[in-house]
């Protein structure tokens, strides 16, 4: 990127609504249409930067005709509203003399962060400028030359030294230092999660140094981040979540000291937060965590300033908007219809906050959409591994509204429900038996949905054995700081799925790190769940549209529950010769080795697993070094199994996964012989299930159904 590219001033609308895509190279969850995108910090050359700023007409293909009309109407209405608010927005006098914060509706919502000694440790680190950021771990933001650790570096990625500073006119942001910095790091710091921890720890310990550090950092932030200039005023979602954490901090301090710490300077900034969000709503007629966060932020701000007319207007607008959003953001099954488990959790937390404030404000009682919250919670519980972490299908940046607390802000771990369940509309299928099971990503691309949340992972699986994750999704790792790694972690070649001719499941563009072409249409052919076994079968339409000659890819997953055994069979129907690749990525805790051409042994503490492979064509199997990203910003080295070969269609690949060890375990030699006999014979799941059950129990399970 040239100096001129970095310093080019942005129009106010582009600065607020388009810079998020440019700086993170992630989807604009608000519009995702044919938008122009100024390239601010993507490490690209000038021609690529010019391509990135062109109108993205190809994105129109993600709309149906009716959806495109709604999109155009919504954009037009949003533009008119913004111009109107520019005239009638709250007068500057409301900011010069802001009303006092009304805590009546906020007190019942805020709970103290738990953690005891761990809370105190994190708070003391935060007081010194060492703050935990997503998966990056603890980063040091303290000023090196400062005598007291009161001020932090609010606009820097300390890992790389990249800085985002306001330009001379204050209309945009320019980048200095290496281009590989992650803008989410200063954003996450300015969300002020660590201030909530500092306030909670101060209330627990009474240590005055924690309070001094908190107030000093707050003053420094206000001094160095005046609205609406700089990196922390680019995205209304960030302003909304920041305001929520400020209110939580104020309530916790008020409980601890018995006085109000929202002096006029803090109250003035909170009103500026509300004005900024109100003027730049990230409107979307499609599922959107950004627009939802704007409304929840305005609900908090309106409840705090309901003595003012603008506060009461924010409450009315937020309550109406949340009612409309619930019909868009929550499908009939309770899922967030975007193909991402991580963002479903964030949306669930946002609706939980919105409901808590609506109930505590005493205005009209619980809203009608409150009945949908148990569905959201149940969906999140079902899409949870036995260890309480989320299944990693789709994008996930570990973002939260507030730090973990016992009620409104539930922690990052949940308790899974011990059942097999299908969510056909949301596209997720879960198989469970005690602490073993698996999940399948069968989300189907369709018009009028945001595409930036998903990966090329249709029909990918996760498996867990005796409470341990065994076969895992690779995760997200990053958005815009490395376009190459962004494309890598969302590509089909790193997911637990078969690939035809090394083609991706959806078309993509190197300069657009959000867009997917929409070819990955999934048709579920069968789902059955009984006490003895689960059976899933689906066809993927990607290669029927992208491969030449066309290929129909069908995956069948069978799960025998006692003892837990998984059977994965991929069939390829069509004609001509094609390259076929079958992959499984193992969790880093497992040590794996090849025992032969078609056998893999994997071991972890107290868990032993054997895999057998079979195919209708000559193949080679090997274990490759790979990376997984268990948390946003971090990656770990692991192993990936890859089976590769060329075949004239039709063809198939079959894999049997058998945990073993301990008393009463299955006879591996007999199981392997039964697997190969059936795979080369009938090859379907009922025949395999009969053979496995006869080998293990000496009976036919079909007679039990």
Description:
The chain is of the alpha+beta class and about 700 residues long. It has three domains: about 5-75, no CATH class; about 75-380, Glycosyltransferase; about 425-705, Beta-galactosidase, Chain A, domain 5. It contains 20 helices and 22 strands. Strands 12-13-14-15-22-19-18-17 form an eight-stranded antiparallel beta sheet. A hairpin with a 2-residue loop joins strand 18 (about 600-605) and strand 19. Helix 9 packs antiparallel against helix 10, helix 12 packs antiparallel against helix 13 (about 290-305) and helix 15 packs antiparallel against helix 16. The model is unreliable at about 1-55, about 405-410 and about 700-705 (pLDDT under 50).
Q: SS-based structural class?
A: alpha+beta
Major sheet summary line: 8 strands, antiparallel
Radius of gyration using CA atoms only: 26 Å
Kindly state the number of beta strands.
22
Top-tier CATH class of the largest domain: Mainly Alpha
What is the CATH T-level topology of the largest domain?
Glycosyltransferase
Query: What is the helix tally?
Result: 20
Name given to the CATH homologous superfamily of the largest domain: Chondroitin AC/alginate lyase
CATH architecture of the largest domain: Alpha/alpha barrel
Uncertain segments: 1-54, 406-411, 700-705
Strand order of the largest sheet: 12-13-14-15-22-19-18-17
